[in-house]
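Exercise: predict the fold of this chain.
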Amino acid sequence: MGGWLPKTKWWAISAFLVFHLVAIACWCLPIDNRLILGCRAVVRPYFRWSGLFQSWDMFAPIPKVANTRVEAIVEYKDGSTELWTFPTMEQLGFREKLFKERYRKFAENLQREENDPLLPDVARHIARIESTPSRPVKMVVLVQDWSAIVLRSDGSYEPGPWEQHVLLGYGVRSEDLR
């Protein structure tokens, strides 16, 4: 019962694995030559769509100098407000972290200026999640919080005070809640 189907499956699985190993290696190598940059350009749409992208700027060449997070202040038509947050890894169990790590990546990338066109969609999504027929959302304000990581004289680090920056204030329309 050999036939061509088992060989086709084997080749397809092998090609899939080889593609991903090469793509991930090119994506993660801290080298910027033409071949690596060309490979990154080819796989970038697929990696962004699938959530496989990874940035190593936390470690090199310049480590991150701030703790950051994105939150939303949700205002309801009755005048009440609530704070909405993306899942934070330090508050999740091991199994939940595996499935929700993409939220950390999304929130990190959401703070980048070139991703500003995504902010209204994020605000609408939060409004749909938080709105109920008896308590509709009126406004969503996306806020970036950050705290500088300060180097002490003894060589250790400490977090600085938290600061805030409003990324977007979005007035929710009734059609946004459908």
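Check your answer against the key: Residues 4-50 form one domain.
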